[in-house]
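ingest -> validate -> predict -> emit
validate: passed (alphabet ok, no gaps, 306 aa)
predict: started
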Amino acid sequence: MTLAYVPIYPNMQHYVMEQEGYYENVPVDVTIERFSSGPNVVKAFASGDVDAALFGITPAMVLVDKGTDAGILAANSKNGFKIMATTELVDLYDQEGTDTFERFEQENGRKIRFGAPPDGSVPDIVLRYWTQEHLDIGEMDSVINKSKVPPSKAVQTVQSGDIDATIIQEPFATIIDQDDDFGELAWSGAILENHPVTVLFANQQVIDDNDVSQSLVEQHTAATEFTADSPDAAAADAASVIGSGVSEDLATAAMDSQASDFISDPHAITDQTATMGEFVANVGNIEEPIATENLFAFGPSDAVQE
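emit:
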């Protein structure tokens, strides 16, 4: 079985499973492949080069929308973003609330500049939900000026003054928060409570092999429990695999964040997945929201829970 992953902090279970030897308990040889982004995994998955993957829930939606016979076996993480901004903007938001955006534009002659991953990505969808539904101030594009900034460049882009704010996962939120010139504007768990971030996704061949699919879910659940019981060890596992400037100290510090929320139960994310699917469809990344029964493969998880 070929298993793909995107090297981001929310895929914590993969780092534990790889470093602690959990994949060795799966009754099939597991070949691990690293991909730089969700869209790259989508291409490989669609062409049959990948059997399972740990990546964002929106790429999973795209694959099912394209007709790929596959489903979500487990959730990896939820509530996994923070909106970080300059201290001036944080102070203004504390004073003005929803009027912040209009007030900022009046004072600066421009909209607030937000850096975020591409349209239809998980953080982009949460950002759209924030302005449109949570704050009820209009569609995202009408109230902010968004530019595409990958998570790995967000810290640098914020600190250079090119953007005023960003929606970002750990451990980057922790890095930005350590800078006195920036602070936390909002946490995504308070915007869209229990929204999914990343998932364990598998093709139908894996799902239909009960021994393999149930074993994957068992090991994934064990990794979630390991992370809860031994957060420092899990952080060390993550740092050793992710690399790219994610030190062990940083990975450990990020474990204390509200945005570090790791789970396995797929049932825990179904409602908010449906809500997010509507936005993904509105962006145009999928034709229409995907029914829960077509996106999730609950069988293996339910069997393990029994």
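The chain has 17 helices and ten strands.
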